[in-house]
């Protein structure tokens, strides 16, 4: 059955092509497996709660915009009855009946791992689609000051403040000379745009919509995770060709489900540490049906995601066995008005067997953050750049400086291959069991060997996290972190100049250290100096070494494996690395935009040494130490790294880096 929807219909019909429904919600209330909902261009100011799901991948419910991006689902409403309050400040009174049982101007952002003491609501004010900055007093609206922590400083004078007056919400906003009654001014009203209230609405496709401006709540791994759109603990969704922007917190949510007995327990009861709550939740979720048959296996592809406050994509447990490909994600948390440990372009906990490929992620306060249980996870053929603050942005804490990829407290195997990583910090590695293969890396590795405990000052506070039966959600065990178990093969490392604003400098401008503890800006594998090789590590376990090394051998750093890496512009080599090349030639590396294309211009391949480089495969990489699982495909088949960044074939005589052809420039993205 096909149902048709048009916001321009004079009145709602029966859903036929001649007499379409006026709202998507009408179709969502009756569509069943195999049905298609065809939506014409228009603005749909509604919350869509699909009543049913499909029954299989070939018998799904499809919601499709007839023109990409032209059917707009928004959580906002237009507000026109503004009155001038003082100068550029205007005020409006809104009846609370508009909001139903969820008033975004009463709802304060809160939750586990949210660390800001500033009162910020889930509501928002927009002028011609651009969001304002909330402040705590009317005086700050009347006398706005630049907010130097924002990545968009010039727009930070647009301020707003809210208060309650009986049955009314009152909003004051500084429009910087604009008349809000003559412009397009909107406010967040609804919490979600397309999100089932009930779990288990499987096999739904959402294709070609613009989804924007919802009052989503903070989404930690230990609470129900909000998103403007998401499957809500279901299986087999496809979200494709959508434009998703201006969620107060998260754009797409892939999980988790609501557990009333364990929801933000850390920040409300204070007794158990957040890490212990998360372990409890993982075990509880498994007993409640966290299996491949019931949850995950979603696809997010060809979406443009931007201007969200917390994440473009978030997920915990519900993000297993997913494919996230060909997405453009940018400007996430650029306002810097939210502060906590769950912020990134993509932030997933437990992305078991989840594949990220051909994504373009830039100008996010952190690119991809894989936290806990990144087992069987792969990031490949993707472009990362500018995922650190620009010069002039005020850096105040360890969350102010991000990186392209952050892998935290996971046991692997985590595979990062054929990527271009150009931010000053390429990867934060507070983890083990990672392989980096055939990447172009022009940023540093940070937090190596640290960041895996809970920061106790007097007592040890290690974090024990789970690892799983390969390609399954079944828990095989828990363990803390020894660090190492790292593999670096056929990567190109290029030291790039680092903006001095990122470092402390003396009177002469000479760098004296990092502004942030444990952040390093020097490129290369040297951060693993002191770690053993494979032979050194496993020699400790021979029969004649048992007494010499004692029990300490079980708690020392795991080995590092290397081969075929090339180092330029002073990038530094791991002290025990043998099969590598270093060049003194000055390497040029530049990412430019020309005619809508991102182009890398470099002469690095002019100076790649002509020699035999190792051809890498699953068998070469071996097994991640703790789960004893190979770096392999989700179906258990081997990976032979015979495709480059473009998918072009590598010959038997391979070279380092993500490209098989030696050129002066590479078109790496066409937008």
Structure, explained:
By secondary structure, this protein is mainly beta. It is built from seven helices and 51 strands. It folds into three domains: 30-72 and 198-350, Single-stranded right-handed beta-helix, Pectin lyase-like (Pectate Lyase C-like, 3 Solenoid), CATH 2.160.20; 76-188, Immunoglobulin-like; 395-671, Pectate Lyase C-like. It has a 13-stranded parallel beta sheet. A 13-stranded parallel beta sheet has the order 3-5-16-18-21-24-27-30-33-36-41-45-46, with no helix packed on it. Strands 19-22-25-28-31-34-37 form a seven-stranded parallel beta sheet, with no helix packed on it.
The CATH topology of the largest domain comes to Pectate Lyase C-like
Return the CATH architecture of the largest domain: 3 Solenoid
Q: Number of DSSP helices?
A: 7
Annotated CATH homologous superfamily of the largest domain? Single-stranded right-handed beta-helix, Pectin lyase-like
Can you give the helix content as a percent range?
under 10%
CATH class of the largest domain: Mainly Beta
Name the strands of the widest sheet in spatial order. 1-2-4-15-17-20-23-26-29-32-35-40-44
The count of strands amounts to: 51
Q: Biggest sheet, open or closed, and with what strands and sense?
A: 13 strands, parallel
Estimated radius of gyration? 26 Å
Which stretches of 5+ consecutive residues score pLDDT under 50?
Answer: none
| Mean residue pLDDT | 94
Coarse morphology? globular
Class by helix and strand content? mainly beta
Number of domains: 3
Span from first to last CA? 35 Å
Strand content: 25-35%
């Amino acid at each position: 059955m096909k149902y048709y929807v048009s916001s321009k219909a004079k009145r709602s019909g029966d859903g036929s092509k001649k007499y379409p429904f006026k709202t998507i919600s009408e179709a969502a209330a009756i569509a069943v497996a195999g049905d298609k909902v065809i939506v014409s261009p228009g603005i749909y100011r509604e919350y869509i709660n699909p009543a049913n799901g499909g029954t299989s991948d070939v018998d799904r419910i499809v919601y499709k915009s007839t023109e990409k991006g032209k059917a707009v689902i928004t959580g906002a409403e237009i507000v026109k009855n503004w009155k001038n309050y003082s100068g550029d400040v205007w005020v409006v009174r809104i009846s609370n009946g508009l909001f139903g049982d969820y008033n975004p101007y009463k709802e304060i952002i809160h939750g586990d791992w949210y660390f800001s003491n500033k009162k910020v609501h889930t509501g928002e004010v927009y002028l011609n689609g651009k969001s304002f900055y909330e402040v705590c007093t009317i005086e700050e609206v009347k006398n706005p000051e630049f907010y130097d922590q924002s990545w968009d400083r010039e727009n930070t004078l647009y301020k707003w403040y809210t208060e309650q007056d009986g049955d009314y919400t009152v909003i004051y906003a500084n429009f910087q000379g604009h008349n809000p009654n003559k412009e397009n001014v909107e406010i967040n009203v609804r919490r979600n745009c397309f999100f089932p209230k009930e779990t288990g609405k499987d096999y739904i496709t959402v294709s070609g919509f613009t989804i924007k401006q919802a009052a989503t709540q903070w989404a930690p791994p230990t609470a129900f995770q909000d998103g403007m759109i998401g499957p809500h603990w279901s299986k087999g969704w496809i979200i494709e060709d959508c434009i998703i922007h201006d969620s107060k917190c998260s754009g797409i949510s892939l999980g988790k489900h609501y557990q009333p007995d364990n929801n933000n327990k850390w920040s409300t009861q204070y007794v158990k540490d957040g890490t212990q709550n998360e372990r409890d939740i993982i075990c509880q979720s498994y007993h409640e049906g966290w299996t491949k048959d019931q949850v995950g296996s979603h696809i997010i592809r060809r979406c443009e995601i931007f201007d969200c406050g917390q994440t473009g994509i978030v997920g915990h447990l519900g993000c297993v066995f997913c494919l996230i490909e060909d997405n453009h994600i940018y400007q996430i948390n650029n306002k810097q008005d939210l502060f906590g440990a769950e912020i990134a372009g993509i932030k997933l906990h437990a992305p078991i067997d989840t594949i990220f490929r051909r994504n373009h992620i830039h100008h996010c306060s952190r690119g991809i953050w894989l936290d806990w249980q990144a087992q069987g996870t792969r990031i490949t053929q993707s472009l990362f750049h500018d995922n650190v603050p620009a010069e002039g942005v005020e850096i105040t804490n360890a969350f102010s400086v991000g990186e392209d990829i952050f892998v935290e407290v996971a046991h692997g195997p985590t595979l990062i291959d054929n990527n271009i990583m150009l931010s000053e910090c390429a990867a934060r590695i507070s983890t083990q069991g990672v392989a980096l293969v055939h990447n172009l890396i022009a940023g540093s590795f940070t937090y190596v060997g640290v960041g895996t405990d809970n920061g106790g000052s007097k007592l040890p506070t290690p974090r024990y996290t789970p690892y799983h039966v390969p390609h399954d959600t079944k828990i095989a065990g828990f363990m803390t972190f020894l660090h190492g178990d790292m593999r670096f093969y056929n990567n190109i490392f290029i030291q790039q100049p680092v903006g001095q604003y990122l470092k402390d400098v003396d009177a002469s401008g000479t760098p004296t250290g990092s502004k942030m503890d444990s952040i390093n800006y020097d490129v290369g594998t040297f951060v693993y100096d002191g770690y053993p090789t494979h032979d050194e590590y496993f020699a400790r376990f021979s029969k004649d070494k048992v007494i010499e090394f004692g029990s300490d051998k079980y708690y020392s750093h795991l080995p590092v494996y290397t081969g075929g890496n090339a180092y330029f512009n002073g990038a530094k080599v791991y002290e025990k690395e043998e099969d590598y090349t270093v060049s003194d030639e000055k390497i040029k590396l530049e990412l430019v935009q020309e005619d809508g294309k991102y182009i890398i211009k470099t002469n690095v391949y002019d100076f790649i040494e002509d020699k035999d480089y190792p051809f890498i495969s699953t068998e070469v990489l071996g097994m991640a130490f703790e789960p004893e699982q190979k770096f392999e495909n989700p179906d258990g088949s081997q990976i032979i790294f015979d495709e480059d960044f473009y998918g072009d074939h590598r010959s038997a005589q391979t070279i380092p880096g993500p490209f098989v052809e030696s050129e002066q420039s590479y078109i790496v993205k066409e937008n």
